[in-house]
Amino acid sequence: xxxxxxxxxxxxxxxxxxxxxxxxxxxxxxxxxxxxxxxxxxxxxxxxxxxxxxxxxxxxxxxxxxxxxxxxxxxxxxxxxxxxxxxxxxxxxxxxxxxxxxxxxxxxxxxxxxxxxxxxxxxxxxxxxxxxxxxxxxxxxxxxxxxxxxxxxxxxxxxxxxxxxxxxxxxxxxxxxxxxxxxxxxxxxxxxxxxxxxxxxxxxxxxxxxxxxxxxxxxxxxxxxxxxxxxxxxxxxxxxxxxxxxxxxxxxxxxxxxxxxxxxxxxxxxxxxxxxxxxxxxxxxxxxxxxxxxxxxxxxxxxxxxxxxxxxxxxxxxxxxxxxxxxxxxxxxxxxxx
Length: 338
Fold this sequence. Notes:
Elements: E1 4-6, E2 25-26, E3 29-30, E4 35-38, H1 43-60, E5 66-73, E6 78-82, E7 88-89, H2 95-106, H3 112-123, H4 127-136, H5 149-158, E8 175-176, H6 178-188, H7 201-212, E9 231-240, E10 254-265, E11 268-280, H8 289-309, H9 323-330, E12 332-334
Antiparallel strand pairs: 1-12, 2-3, 4-6, 5-6, 5-11, 7-8, 9-10, 10-11
Helix pairs in contact: 1-8, 2-3, 2-5, 3-4
Protein name: Beta-lactamase class A catalytic domain-containing protein
Organism: Streptomyces capitiformicae
GO molecular function: beta-lactamase activity
């Protein structure tokens, strides 16, 4: 199990990262905005879609994070997207993809060894377990560059067309999109009685159960503000790497922070994915402040979405994005990328 360190008092210096005034820049892109639709003709559905669209844009306005967002709600037929096909480093949100591929090829219950590895990979975000399963699902003709052919077969079956798997064994550098990760959540939560599901019911239930038992200090992000009676299935990921022009890709002051979650139970059936990058650490600030800033961006979107969908049940309308509030929420800081 990876180590954690306590939040340093210096993290309060993150205040300088929080914009003091809204700008015309939404999620790091000029003139861009979320778009939400409803699959019904009822005015209430269209009005709700417009409200969610407005509030996602409001949550992203003024944030330095470059974000992509994807949302579905099967009950209302509402879908939202914001730069949903932009590719970025997966970090640990590739782990549910590995799990899906493992279940896709198992043709039945997992072996004891595979079950142990899968549980470690999802609930504790164990990197060694993920590497072992990645290799198991790869062509090892060249052991130094595993070719994840079986994972690709799962992506093809699941309709995840824009995910690019890393071919050199660095699974966290696979390129994912919010739209594809949302499609994965749809595969895991598919309860339709028609057609041929990608995964059998037992496999879907297993995947959701593991994501429901992610350890408590990794349950931030997309679940923030969710209805308290919803069953939450979450996986997060983070690493320090830069895609900015003129910046070393392994610049340790640039964070990718990602979160994906499905919400079920008590008539809930929706999913949310928020991927972020460009969570820069200003000179003189603690390295972890970029991680916290990315979480703040994700949770701003999440709280808006949950409240708009379920104003009576959501746990809060909006938590003001201050360093003090985020530190109070998170308690611990990650010591290693996940």
